[in-house]
Amino acid sequence: MGEKAKITCDVAVIGAGLAGLTAGVRAAQAGRKAVLFEKSPDSVHLNNSRMTSGVFHLALGDILGDEGQLEQRIIDVTGGAAHRGLARALARDSKRMVRWLQALGVRFIRGSPEPWHNFVLAPPAIAQLGRHWQGRGGDVMLRTLEAELKKRGGEIKRGHEARHLCRESGRCAGFEGASLDGRPFEVIARATVIADGGFQANRELLHAHLTPAPDKVVQRNAGNGTGDGLRMAKEFGAAVTDLRGFYGHVLSRDALANDTLWPYPWADELARSCLVVGADGKRFADEGLGGVYLANRIAALPDPASATVVFDQAGWEGPGTERFLPPNPNMIKAGGTVLKAATLADLARTAGIAEEGLASQVETYNRALKSGGLEQLNPTRTTSKFRPVSVERPPFYAIPVCAGITYTMGGIAIDECSRVTGEGGQPIAGLYAAGSTVGGLEGGEKAGYLGGLCVTGVTALRAAEHIIGALDD
């Protein structure tokens, strides 16, 4: 295998997506030697940041809003699960992070009149079926950051996989790894940042924490988030947050075999407005909490490929046409199954749903909706976020669905400075983490979604800035 190569730098970053590049560029701006280690050998490697739709928001709120209100929004959306210090940091620094990107030449547009669309990467993602990321906002953003990194003396070593963190005098002193051809290397760094993404593509971890059947959950992502950094951090003594919860959407079940059906269209608007049932015809989750929550509940079913969204003609013509690339008509155009029948009984038989169970559930739901008693249903039905729609106007429809996972919400525990913390809550000297490899912000019992781009950018920016201060001391 030959002699182990030694690489020395001020800041070593594992991963070269938005988190890694942000940390590297910010450190390089302060004159620090930053080296990024990316296991993919591709010069333009695919990752979630490159595929992003590019909306910088906070819990579907405007990042320019009042910081105190944004902080409380984060706490509320996550049901109090978010780390208070991290919530405050995210509320305060999201706009600063976007301004920092703009100063580097990253361009934004206003995506729609909605306040949470005030900062959308340009050129905007194309509203077409399939994946069209080349030359779009996320791709251009990463190319811009990489050019800035190189201009300031930093570099990216591609085809270099980090495997184990190194300890010296009680602190993280770098890591060991191997290149694609098997040659070992050792990185000696004054600070190390783990920024390699979540564990959404690691079937073993998915099975342990998110779903009994990972093969029945669509990988709605770049496919490279395997949790390597999470594993290394745990081995080093880092604490880990609750690993339940992921950001994703409700997709056509056919997306398990048909790639045209992801990332869009999704069935979230229909699911949150109408009914989602199992094979027994019964509801199993609160649809009113939205698509991300429903995707989590579908993935957790004993059979994650057993859920169906049920609605009527009014639902198909209403929620079924909302948002860009809605299921009506794009689900059908992309080859997804949309069943239609004159009666609920016929629909149940065609969809493989228990006929009596579905009829009883629809009747109970419609009655509760008309009487204002949805919150008394079991499971309860929240109405504060989305308007529920009755299921009573034929013809009736059913879309067999599954969950699509984009990134995981739990991960390495960090403090508000993005320092990795140990089991006792104390920071581990020399070790930082940023992006979707970290936990402590999104998640909770209701899978509270805050917005991956802001979480990623802020945690990376804060990691670099703490490192800059620490190395100056």
Largest sheet descriptor: 8 strands, mixed
Total beta strands: 16
Radius of gyration: 23 Å
CATH superfamily of the largest domain, called what? FAD/NAD(P)-binding domain
The average pLDDT score comes to 97
Q: Do you know the CATH architecture of the largest domain?
A: 3-Layer(bba) Sandwich
Question: How far is the first residue's CA from the last residue's CA?
Answer: 39 Å
Shape: elongated
How many separate helices? 14
Q: Percent of residues in helical segments? A: 25-40%
Low-pLDDT sequence parts: none
Which fold does the CATH topology of the largest domain refer to? Answer: FAD/NAD(P)-binding domain
Specify the structural class: alpha/beta
CATH class categorisation of the largest domain: Alpha Beta
Percent range for β-strand residues = 15-25%
Please identify the oligomeric state: single chain
Q: Strand-and-helix sequence, N→C?
A: EHEHHHEEHEEEEHEHEHEHEHHEHHEEEH
List keywords for this structure.
eight-stranded mixed sheet; alpha/beta; six-stranded mixed sheet; 2 domains; FAD/NAD(P)-binding domain; 16 strands; 473 residues; elongated; 20% strand; Flavocytochrome C3, Chain A, domain 1
